[in-house]
Amino acid sequence: MGHYLLEQHFKNSVQLTEEESTAICDAFTLKKYQKKEFVFTQGSIVNQEFFVVSGCFRVFTLDKKGNESTLYFAVQNWWLMDIDSFMNNTPSNLNVQALEVSEVLFISKTDKLALYEAYPVVEKLFRVMFQKAIVAWQRRLIRNHCETARERYGYFITTYPEIAAKLTDKQIASYLGITHEFLSRFKKENSLE
After folding, report:
1. Given 29, 94, 98, 191, which is the most exposed site by the fewest CB atoms within 10 A?
2. What is the DSSP string of the chain?
3. What CA–CA distance (Å, rounded) separates 35 from 101?
4. pLDDT one-digit tens code per residue, 157-189
5. How far apart are CA 159 and CA 149, in angstroms?
6. Model-level pTM?
C-alpha cells in the first residue's frame, strides 16, 4: 500500500511514465515507528526525506530552556524532512516524533541525487512539491501574524479535524504558539455557550 500511495502522490504533481514511476518508488524504503519513537532529533544530520504512509508525526524544536514549539504535524501523504540539514549537511534544528504507530517511506540523499541524474523529471517533481510546501508555509506565517489565537485554533480544528483528533491540547497549543492554559480556558469558555 505504501508505494501505491507514494506513486499516486507523485502522479498528482507531474506526469510520469510507468518506468519513471517504478524507478522512483523503488528508491524508497518502508520503515515503521512506534508511538513516541523519534525519526530524527536536533543535532543529527538528516540525510533522508520521509513520506508518511500511515500514522501521525510531530515536527518540533526545543529551545535552551526545554520549551517545545511545534512547527507542524504530518499524516498520510505528507512529508517529513529538515531541508536545511538535508541540503547543507548541517545539524538539524528539528525533532520528529511518531505520535502513534506509524509508517514512512524514505529516500536517502544519495538515492535522490541518483534519481535526478537518471530521470530528469524527478527534479521537476520535487520542485513542484517544494513550491507547494512553500505556499503552505507562507499561508501559515500570514495566519500566525494576522489572526488571533482563537482564529488560528478555529482554522486548525476545522481544516485538519483528523489531525486535531489525534492530539493533546498541549500539542495543539504548542503548534498555535499559545499556552496550554490559554487553550484550556478558551475551550472551557466556548463549551459554556
Report:
1. 191
2. -HHHHHHHHHHTTS---HHHHHHHHHT-EEEEE-TT-EEE-TTSB--EEEEEEESEEEEEEE-TT--EEEEEEEETT-EE--HHHHHH--B-S-EEEESSSEEEEEEEHHHHHHHHHH-THHHHHHHHHHHHHHHHHHHHHHHHHHS-HHHHHHHHHHH-HHHHTTS-HHHHHHHHTS-HHHHHHHHHHHH--
3. 5
4. 999 999 999 999 999 999 998 888 888 888 888
5. 15
6. 0.90
CB proximity list for 159: less than 8 A, separation 6 or greater: none
Closest CA to 99 of 158, 170, 167: 167
Structural contact between residues 43 and 93, judged by C-beta atoms closer than 8 angstroms:
no
Q: Which residue has the cell 535522490?
A: 112
